Amino acid sequence: MAAMVADQVRAGTRRALAIWQVRWLPLLLVAVTAAAEQQVPLVLWSSDRDLWASSADIHEGHITSDMQLSTYLDPVLKLGPRNVLLFLQDKLSIEDFTAYGGVFGNKQDSTFSNLENALELAPSSLVLPAVDWYAVSTLTTYLQEKLGASPLHVDLATLQELKLNASLPALLLIRLPYTASSGLMAPREVLTGNDEVIGQVLSTLKSEDVPYTAALTAVRPSRVARDIAMVAGGLGRQLLQKQPVSAVIHPPVSYNDTAPRILFWAQNFSVAYKGHWEDLTPITFGVQDLNLTGSFWNDSIARLTLTYEQLFGTMVTFKFTLVNRFYPVSARYWFTMERLEIHSNGSVVYFNVSQITGPSIYSFHCQYVSSLKAEGSLLVPSTQPSLWQMSLQDFQIQAFNVTGEQFSYASDCAGFFSPGIWMGLLTSLFMLFIFTYGLHMILSLKTMDRFDYHKGPSITLTQIV
Asked: Is 436 exposed, middle or buried (0-12, 13-18, 19+ CB in 10 A)?
């Protein structure tokens, strides 16, 4: 956009203005979006001066890590205002500013007018176009440790009732939604509403004359490649193109005590008893009155209990038990799902699920977690044959270091060396062996250095090597 956000983004990418004016902009943006799926932008501004040097501009393609982000934030938290605002949006990407902002100087069409105005008037500001997703996921905890103040979730009503003190640290967390839609107007309207919230919050602080440092970022990146193509006039032939039907996304099951503790999700959750299959997906995900009685959580062990009153004509309970242990070799905590239990009619069936493991700061994801051989058999029943079968498609679970209702970065069960990779490696090694052997044979050839001359004495060779 022509205002401060787009200006600083272009400055952070070595001010490559020519890129924004070429006709093949949509292709570039699609490629950038595909390459930046795990990065989100971070916009910082403050009421104090000289908090960020001009050398803090980031070159094109640079991804800011958690260590680099701390170097930008540490001086601000030590020398800057003690009141910190964190505007946390559900989804946001740098392409959102291009798609919904006034890129070519048309401020009337800009969705981020209040944000632009705040950056223009702020004595200090910094835009990081691509920040590592893990660094942003731990930003709230980092700010809490540095400020020594717990995050306070506020809205406009509660903010007006607060009395902020310039000498006392305060961490205010304002959540902003983002609604993905197949149309163009729905995201624009939501982003406009979020920008109005930012403007009202900043107006409140300005009226109270409270110094502050503000940050705008997101929990995860949005994917607006298709919307960018629409804004740019269309990418390719779209007259008769039919939009793909997206899969139904169910909200995850969340166990809460004082905060969200355990998250569980699957695209399809099916169970079989004596060969009869039941789909539990519609009665598990998105259900307000799901029975989670028996679930509990602490720092070392967590259990998610799902109870169904009428399943196969009786009450059936599923228990997912996960433990969190510290391993000195890796110097970090790892979680493991110790077992999966199915309780019904006074009997218990155990499944070994020790392959579900990963660092405790991550979630676990697998395309199939099933007791069926055709789907990998990650669930191994303790007794064979078992009357119970289970299949979880696109399974994901997290029981430790949960922040809000969103999963952390996923540790996937898929191995790095797939059958295709092994076939390629073995074929390449075999061809390399043939090439090496042939080259060795060629280099081993030796020719005669003397030849027989018919007018002179004959040459006697005893051995030719």
From this structure: exposed
Bridge partner residues of 406 (DSSP): 403
Q: What is the 3-state secondary structure (H, E, C) of 380-433?
A: EECCCCCCEEEEEEEEEEECCCCECCECCCEEECCCCCCHHHHHHHHHHHHHHH
User: Which of 323, 320, 327 has its CA nearest to residue 301?
Assistant: 323
Residues 74, 126: Cα–Cα separation, whole Å: 14
- C-beta of residue 421 within 8 angstroms of C-beta of residue 390: no
Q: Residue 55 — very low, low, confident or very high, per pLDDT cuts 50/70/90?
A: very low
**Whole-model pTM?**
0.44
Nearest in space to 305 (alpha carbons), one of 290, 320, 315: 320
Highest mean pLDDT, choosing among 45-49, 102-106, 295-299: 295-299
Handedness of CA 208, 209, 215, 216 (dihedral sign): positive
- Can you point out the beta strands (E) in 266-359? 268-273, 276-279, 296-297, 301-311, 314-327, 332-344, 347-352, 357-359
Please answer whether residues 28 and 20 qualify as being in contact, where contact means their C-beta atoms are separated by less than 8 angstroms.
no
d(C-alpha 124, C-alpha 121), whole Å: 9
Distance of CA 102 to the CA centre of its chain: 28
Angstrom distance (rounded) from CA 17 to CA 28 = 14
